[in-house]
Amino acid sequence: MLLLxxxxxxxxxxxxxxxxxxxxxxxxxxxxxxxxxLTERSAWAESLVSLAGDLVDAxxxxxxxxxxxxxxxxxxxxxxDPRLIDVVLVGRxxxxxRRLSVQLVELKRWxxxxxxxxxxxxxxxxxxxxxxxxxxxxxxxRYYDAFTGDRGPLNGLSFECGGFAYLHNATDxxxxxxxDIDAPxxxxxxxxxxxxxxxxxxxxxxxxxEEGGASEAEILLSRMGLRNxxxxxxxxxxxxxxxxxxxxxxxxAVADQIMGTASQVLPxxxxxxxxxxxxxxxxxxTGGAGTGKSAVGLQLKAxxxxxxxxxxxxxxxRAFNGAIQEHVGYGDREFRETFTYFSHFxxxxxxxxxxxxxxxxHRLRDRSTNRFWKPEQQGxxxxxxxxxxxSRLAVFFLDEGQSVRPNEVGTVDxxxxxxxxxxxxxxxxxxxxxxxxxxSDAYIRWVRALLGVTDEAPQExxxxxxxxxxxxxxxxxxELIIRAEALAGASARMVAGYCWPWTKPLxxxxxxxxxxxxxxxxxxxxxxxxxxxxxxAPPSKIWSVHKNGLDQIGCVYTAQGLEWDWCGVIMGDDMxxxxxxxxxxxxxxxxxxxxxxxxxxxxxxxxxxxxxxxxDDEEFARLVRHAYHVLMTRASRATVLYSTDEETRAYLKQMxxxxxxxGLRPTWDNLPQEARRPxxxxxxxxxxxxxxxxxxxxxxxxLF
Length: 704
What we know:
Distance between the termini: 14 Å
Number of strands: 26
Number of helices: 19
Largest sheet: 7 strands, mixed
Structural class: alpha/beta
Shape: globular
Radius of gyration: 27 Å
Low-confidence stretches: 237-244, 686-704
């Protein structure tokens, strides 16, 4: 958990635009469930700005300030109030080369302090406060231990860590007990007042190099569990290992509880029970985009398989499964077959699986059907019943906010009703902490408010140092940005609303028609094919991971469940801004230049799944909103928006606001080395899934 991460000079810029305090208050309300008090807001406005100003005046404006954070995700999940430190300053030590330098800061607006007891300065009295207060050094000691202890983020690193309290309203004399001879001591026990401002700036110069701390901040954020490993890269690194990902906080608690229940209900595969346990248990894990549902599911799969259980991982997403099967499981048939689809259980396995893990359960269908199946192969029962009959234990991961097709019926109510009908015990869990989009839950909520997915009034975006967003003037500009990042080393893709006809590959050469046409800018959709097309255009199921996928445009059906560093999102005429509200439109096509090709006659949606005969206008609007919500949350670092509609584009620019804050545009060249994570090639054929590496060789993978 953290509220803000910015270099000191950028925090001052943010404050000068009057965005800092509202942004902090918004994130505080999200994390704490209550509004920040006037005292808290005033402290941010005064103390944070004072400290940032001192850093700038000391020539250390590039030092990173991490505001209101917990040392670890486990710490953030403590019952009651998590222990949050006011500010963590992160940079490079000036005399120790690449050594990490960290200062933990407790900000106080106290102007007068008196002793409570003559014998000690551990407790002090502050006028206007009823209860005695602990010496700030005692708070800092706890933070210091949390950061430097065996489970802390600094453990194992080369670092220098200290801490201090800053009372910018006080004088040395007015708070004498805090610096008296019997005050607490330690590397975290310094106290500065406005009288000691010059001393503070001198000490800041001794603690931090003037080049700043972007690289060091990336190291610390990763160690704190606030930077993720892309799903496919993590799977390639860990395939066949008992431990796939390092779960944090609530993720680990949920996985541990599911594993504990499974061990009680399922028989020991090496010592079967004489009388089998007939109890049925269904686990339902809910959470928004990026909360770690897939991380928990894939970790459960690995651990259960290591115990000798029979497990399959099912999904309703062809893009998700295809990417894992082709990019991770290339050449490993056994591994590939452990990933399957919801529709593959019309006939239940005999014997039943021990565990069936159902990811993206919001994509459950009413029935399992396929236009290529014979009548006797079609499902006749609810699909959820087929899944429950396929296994002893079932785990469903669900986010109702990501349903994008009219025939997707997966809801909490559906799972609960199925559990009752099957006489199964239902255990519910919720994942709250969000780690996609750079860990910026503020960005996720901004997107949802912008699109009207929630009732929250949309506000101008505030750059928070975690996620970047900007608006392009033309589709060519958007493509230039995305291609530049991809060529530099980042992962990047272009996606669009389903606002143009989609032509199947043409002729024997399987040529792709440039269906997405905006003025003189023409590009093809990703290939509607199971094989490679002309110019090595990849089939749709691996468009998201193949290097040539950059040349085509994806849509919600091929992007859902996946992520890239940069994502360019083209909003079409299916959702435009008119008179202060969103208007949703269906399109019409006309004949194109050759047989099988169509062109746009009336701009709007061309998604065949949301035709007028399929959904009414209200449901159509909901599904379009959800589709853009999915597309706008595929990036881990930056989203570039463009709308084909001029009025909508102007509205997006208004809501995104100014973006010219020093160092916040996370281009590959601007990123510190530690943040540059090249994406891995798929494994070679023949790599066995039972291959093991030593513990020292295993990467500490955090997938959220």
